[in-house]
């Protein structure tokens, strides 16, 4: 399985597929290369022989790398014969699964269709009613909690899917429910409907921990130490390792239990069994295709389901983080009449009809006495909640240079250990030592050179950083990401709720009459009664829950500004039992009881149908009726560009774009309103069957609603702080471009003197293969910048020469076109891009991945579920939301401001620099001790066990713990911390320090032999190493370990000074003082315990202290003035880059080209108003007249005439019962408008009884 190709610029998700290889989920986010394997008995038996010969080491290797075991014991084969499969994702992670073959009873010989393509009409194919769903010999396997079924048509395994995509609307309405037998069979295929988070038994976790490479090496070291009678340190390491394993197991079990308790839930669900029979079953028994009833008082959804009757008010805070009630409507039924088109269902496009697993259904509404029913789409790990849990269990792997290079360094240390191993064998053979001693001494060098405590030492900085973050109310679920935060040099921010306040302030209303704007109305009490005021009072999704008006904050502000009141007729207990209109009226109008049509005539407005807001459509709408009126009225609210495109051109003011620009340029949030009087022949049942596309056209433009979206007070200082640290800031938002530009300038992302170039792309014309891409100066500059020299496969952009600093601003529509037709241009756009507006959630993730593709380390900060994709894709994702969906982000801030961003980066930089220091310290400590041992081996001596214990336990273990406690520097530095260990800085640092450490050891080793009182070492069989050479080397090396900790404990610019870490400072003083004491004035008893020879000369003792002092000065001076010298480091870096031809980051190369190429890009002499730019862009979105009118009639009138003709051909209608589904109410028309009016009177009356339900029944019976 070779490495895949490089991802194309701008491509999200997996890289392109390589011809000749087989893939699971091709082209999707979870695309994986798959290879089949079949057992080879010869290779299998050979593997067992090698297990024995290698004393189990080969089996241990296969335990760590199971895919190697499959490749070693199996032979590659076609997938249809495979017994095991190896999958490799685009992160180069390998997964092994066993293919199972089974199937109960006899079934159909026809291959199953699992809707893997998601295209076409698949009605009746997936769930055959008269045949067994499970075929004999069905082959399948599971990986990452997902089941894959063998499909002989595609000759590949296909992901088992539910009913989420590719089915026609009518298919869901045809489902009547499964029998018990059919449901059991489908449950066998899909499994139980449960997101099972397995809590691993303690014994299993214990073996997994003990068998990890780190603990295996520690076990090897401890065995060696016990054999060498180094019991004290071995016991200490055993104790520490045991505590570490216990803590790890406890933390793992705690996390698994918490996740299980949070995720796992079940309840009793009412399920249809056909023939309108419903039974109560456990939610764990649900399967895709089941018909379930939603309780009228709500529930927690245990599956993904699509509504087929009734409406639901849902709290989706689990997904979005916003506790805002959302109305979910049922999907239209194409079988009720010609007014509804047969449409293929899509989870993404039709999410407004879907109840997602884990969301809270607060209450339900339905028509008459019918049940609120839904069709189960997905269960278990296939649901949206299941996908969230899978993202937690199988996170994106962290690819970090420091971690990779640390392995390279360990290999280098291991290579040096091999050299020392050979050196030791040669010397000890020459000395005539026994084979046992030679093996122990040689292997001991391995444990010295590769310190077993290295992983624990590296983790200490992360532990302290995580504790400090918790104090700042920032929580991290992936501690390994803390070090990565230190590399971040670009941060993307969402706008609304992240940079700006969640709430809005009402600025005013700009009415429009006769294709002209009136003066802005700032005092809403002066607002004249009319369609605009009625639109503000009705076009929302507000509802009353527990006596409180709840809904979207924007809707609340708009409605409260009207000074109207909202009432939902009936008692709260029964209010949601039927589909009744919501009533709004001016507050000054008394809510009296009505008994006749004449008394009902007034200002009451009933909201009889709602089309919820859709981010893809950028609008919402409602159908209302005023009491006493003869027709219904549609009100639409949405983005100004979208509403204008849907409005009749003669109702849109000529200066629409210039007025809109005047507000958005100053950061105001602008919403447009429009209306449409519907034909009088439209009756209530027909209203319930309409699709929004049939009425949301040919509107009358009413005006603009202007709101102020203020910056959070913390935003501007944080942006300036990041800018001063040379960290790029980018805004990526779904809001209007000009509003985003205004906020970008206000918060300091774009300096007042910088130029903004707006990028607009248009679909290519019929005779061209490339889109038309234009560049304009935004703001006060009206100079057009255009792309010239547009040829096949290349693009040349030119800007005037006086443009020193500029920023690209790109809309989501332009991003999509450029990504589709000219993706090579995206790298230039992201290097200079600062504002990305009207971006969809997918496009946000694409932007992050393109930034990563050109070499940036990207952080993302957002507050909603629409940012989850980008949060997961970024190197560092920081969520300001506490929604369950935000757990996909490594960091979550309880304080919803962007102050957490510099805090996380500071801690990341501090932790990263600490990790660098600790790694260099542990490597230098190993090499220093390695040098000491090699020097003493020259005479057949060694350090004694108490000396090893003094170094390893008293000095090293205490110093690397307190070393890591230093806090981050107060300010963010302009320079970035080092990322790579394999770079001139760290290599020069370790090499220079090793020279400074080894030279004094050699000098004192040679110098002591010249002293008149010197007694040479005599080799002996008792391993008695007490001698002057041993004492000299041990004492000078003890000082060196302390010196190295001071040298590598760097302060500014990423950490505070060493003096701020009082515990570390006290530790240094203690270690240095104790070492000086045993050098100058050791007691005989202590020297005996230490097995240390004492020196009779005080002058020589003082000389050792002096050598240590000089070594300290040289070591610190070398690190501060040579290694940390910026100019020297740059020269070394340039020399290494020249010799090794190292590639620089792509973004740096692009910036260099832009700087050195004055011809990129030239300036056009055209002066075009910014409003005209958007007007041209919006003109491409206008609905063509042929889609609005058919043969001179409106599309809606044409459908109504066609439907009336069909009804006249059908003759008398069949009688209906009182319980008529609003989606199946084709026969429920009214004989005249008076009957319709009387029914509306009943439905809008304020009586607390349910007489309106009886009226519905009487009307239906009469029809």
UniProtKB/TrEMBL annotation:
Top-level taxonomic group: Eukaryota
InterPro entries in the record: ATPase_P-typ_cation-transptr_N, ATPase_P-typ_cyto_dom_N, ATPase_P-typ_P_site, ATPase_P-typ_TM_dom_sf, ATPase_P-typ_transduc_dom_A_sf, ATPase_P-type_domA, HAD-like_sf, HAD_sf
GO MF term (any one): P-type ion transporter activity
Subcellular location: Late endosome membrane; Membrane
The organism's taxonomic lineage, starting at the top: Eukaryota, Metazoa, Spiralia, Lophotrochozoa, Mollusca
Similarity comment: family membership: Belongs to the cation transport ATPase (P-type) (TC 3.A.3) family. Type V subfamily.
GO CC terms in record: late endosome membrane
Protein name in UniProt: Cation-transporting ATPase
């Amino acid at each position: 399985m070779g490495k895949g190709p490089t991802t194309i610029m701008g491509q999200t998700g997996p890289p392109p597929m390589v011809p000749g290889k087989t893939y699971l989920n091709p082209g999707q986010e979870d695309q994986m290369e798959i290879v089949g394997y079949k057992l080879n008995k010869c290779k299998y038996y050979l593997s067992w022989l090698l297990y024995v010969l290698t004393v189990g080491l080969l089996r241990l290797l296969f335990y760590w790398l199971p895919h190697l075991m499959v490749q070693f014991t199996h032979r590659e084969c076609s997938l249809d014969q495979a017994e095991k499969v190896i999958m490799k994702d685009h992160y180069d992670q390998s997964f092994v699964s066993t293919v199972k073959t089974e199937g109960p009873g006899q079934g159909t010989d026809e291959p199953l269709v699992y809707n893997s393509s998601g295209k076409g009409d698949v009605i009746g194919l997936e769930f055959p009613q008269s045949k067994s769903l499970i075929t004999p010999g069905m082959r399948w396997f599971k990986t990452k909690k997902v089941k894959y079924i063998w499909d002989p048509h595609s000759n590949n395994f296909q992901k088992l899917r539910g009913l989420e995509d590719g089915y026609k609307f009518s298919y869901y309405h045809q489902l009547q429910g499964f029998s018990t037998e059919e449901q059991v069979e489908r449950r066998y295929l899909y499994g139980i409907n449960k997101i099972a988070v397995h809590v691993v038994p303690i014994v299993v976790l214990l073996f997994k921990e003990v068998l990890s490479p780190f603990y295996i090496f520690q076990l090897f070291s401890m065995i060696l130490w016990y054999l060498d009678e180094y019991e004290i340190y071995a016991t200490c390491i055993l104790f520490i390792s045991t505590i570490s394993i216990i803590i790890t197991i406890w933390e793992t079990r705690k996390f698994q239990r918490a996740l299980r308790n949070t995720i796992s839930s079940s309840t009793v669900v009412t399920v249809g069994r056909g023939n309108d029979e419903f039974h109560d079953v456990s939610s764990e028994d649900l399967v895709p295709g089941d018909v379930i009833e939603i309780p009228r008082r709500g529930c927690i959804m245990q599956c993904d389901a699509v509504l087929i009757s009734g409406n639901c008010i849902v709290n989706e805070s689990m997904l979005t983080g916003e506790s805002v009630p959302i109305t979910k409507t049922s999907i239209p039924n194409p079988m009720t009449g010609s007014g509804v088109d047969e449409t293929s269902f899509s989870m993404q496009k039709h999410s407004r009809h879907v109840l997602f697993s884990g969301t809270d259904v607060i209450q339900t509404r339905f028509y008459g006495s019918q049940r609120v029913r839904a069709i189960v789409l997905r269960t278990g790990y296939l649901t949206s909640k299941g996908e969230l849990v899978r993202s937690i269990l199988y996170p994106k792997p962290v690819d970090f240079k420091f971690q990779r290079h640390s392995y390279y360094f360990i290999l280098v240390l291991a290579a040096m250990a091999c050299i020392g191993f050979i050196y030791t064998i040669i010397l000890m053979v020459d000395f005539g030592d026994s084979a046992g001693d030679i093996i122990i001494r040689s292997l001991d060098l391995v444990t010295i050179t590769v310190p077993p405590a290295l992983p624990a030492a590296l983790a200490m900085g992360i532990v302290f950083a995580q504790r400090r973050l918790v104090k700042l109310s920032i929580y991290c679920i992936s501690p390994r990401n803390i070090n990565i935060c230190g590399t971040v040099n670009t941060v993307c921010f969402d706008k609304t709720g992240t940079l700006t306040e969640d709430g809005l302030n009402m600025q005013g209303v700009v009415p429009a009459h006769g294709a002209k704007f009136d003066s802005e109305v700032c005092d809403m009490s002066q607002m004249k009664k009319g369609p605009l005021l009625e639109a503000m009072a009705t076009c929302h999704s507000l509802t009353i829950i527990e006596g409180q008006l709840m809904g979207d904050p924007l809707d609340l502000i708009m409605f409260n500004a009207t000074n109207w009141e909202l009432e939902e007729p009936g008692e709260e207990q029964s209010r949601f039992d039927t589909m009744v209109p919501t009533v709004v009226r001016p507050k000054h109008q008394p809510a009296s009881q009505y008994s006749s049509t004449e008394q009902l005539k007034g200002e009451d407005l009933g909201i009889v149908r709602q089309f919820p807001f859709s981010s893809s459509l950028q609008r919402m709408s409602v159908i209302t009726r005023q009491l006493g009126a003869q027709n219904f009225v549609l009100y639409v609210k949405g983005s100004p560009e979208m509403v204008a495109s849907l409005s009749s051109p003669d109702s849109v003011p000529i200066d629409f774009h210039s007025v809109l620009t005047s507000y958005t340029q100053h950061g105001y949030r602008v919403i447009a309103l429009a209306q449409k009087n519907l034909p009088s022949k439209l009756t209530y049942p027909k209203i319930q069957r309409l699709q929004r596309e049939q009425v949301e056209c040919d509107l009358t433009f009413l005006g603009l609603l202007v709101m102020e979206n203020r910056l959070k007070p913390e935003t501007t200082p944080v942006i300036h702080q990041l800018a001063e640290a040379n960290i790029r800031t980018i805004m990526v938002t779904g809001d209007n471009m000009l509003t985003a530009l205004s906020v970008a300038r206000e918060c300091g992302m774009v300096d007042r003197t910088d130029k903004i170039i707006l990028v607009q792309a248009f679909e290519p014309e019929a005779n061209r293969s490339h889109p038309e891409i234009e560049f304009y100066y935004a703001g006060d500059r009206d100079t057009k910048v255009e792309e010239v020299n547009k040829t096949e496969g290349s693009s040349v952009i030119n800007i005037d020469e006086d443009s020193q600093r500029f920023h690209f601003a790109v809309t989501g529509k332009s991003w999509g076109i450029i990504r589709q037709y000219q993706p090579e241009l995206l790298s230039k756009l992201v290097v200079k891009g600062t504002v990305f507006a009207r971006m969809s959630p997918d496009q946000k993730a694409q932007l992050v991945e393109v930034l990563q593709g050109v070499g940036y380390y990207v952080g993302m900060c957002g507050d909603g579920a629409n940012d989850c994709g980008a949060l997961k894709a970024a190197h560092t994702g920081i969520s300001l939301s506490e929604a369950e969906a935000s757990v996909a982000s490594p960091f979550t801030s309880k304080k919803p401001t962007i102050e957490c961003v510099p805090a996380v980066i500071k801690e990341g930089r501090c932790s990263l620099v600490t990790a660098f220091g600790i790694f260099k310290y542990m490597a230098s400590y190993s090499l220093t001790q390695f040098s000491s041992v090699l020097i003493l081996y020259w005479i057949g001596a060694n350090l004694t066990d108490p000396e090893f214990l003094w170094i390893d336990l008293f000095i090293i273990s205490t110093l690397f713990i307190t070393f890591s406690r230093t806090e981050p520097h107060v300010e963010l530095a302009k320079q970035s911390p080092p990322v790579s260990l394999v770079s001139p800085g760290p290599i020069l640092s370790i090499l220079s320090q090793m020279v400074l450490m080894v030279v004094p050891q050699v000098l004192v080793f040679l110098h002591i032999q010249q002293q008149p009182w010197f007694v040479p070492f005599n080799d002996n069989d008792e391993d008695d190493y007490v001698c002057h050479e041993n004492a000299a080397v041990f004492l000078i090396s003890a000082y060196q370990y302390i010196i190295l900790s001071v040298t590598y404990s760097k302060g500014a610019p990423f950490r505070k000074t060493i003096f701020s870490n009082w515990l570390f400072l006290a530790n240094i003083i203690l270690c240095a003082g104790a070492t000086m004491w045993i050098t100058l004035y050791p007691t005989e008893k202590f020297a005996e315990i230490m097995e240390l020879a004492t020196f009779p000369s005080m002058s020589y003792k003082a000389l050792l202290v002096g050598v240590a002092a000089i070594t300290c000065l040289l070591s610190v001076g070398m690190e501060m003035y040579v290694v940390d010298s910026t100019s020297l480091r740059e020269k070394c870096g340039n020399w290494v880059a020249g010799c090794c031809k190292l590639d620089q980051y792509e973004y740096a190369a692009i910036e260099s080209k832009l700087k050195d190429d004055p011809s990129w890009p030239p300036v056009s002499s055209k002066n075009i108003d910014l409003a005209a730019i958007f007007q041209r862009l919006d003109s491409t979105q206008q609905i063509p007249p042929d889609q609005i009118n058919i043969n001179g009639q409106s599309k809606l009138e044409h459908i109504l005439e066609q439907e009336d003709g069909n009804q006249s051909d059908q003759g008398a209608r069949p009688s209906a019962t009182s319980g008529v589904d609003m989606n199946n109410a084709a026969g429920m028309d009214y004989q005249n408008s008076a009957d319709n009016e009387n029914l509306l009177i009943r439905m809008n009356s304020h009586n607390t009884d349910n007489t309106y339900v009886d009226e519905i029944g009487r009307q239906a019976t009469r029809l």
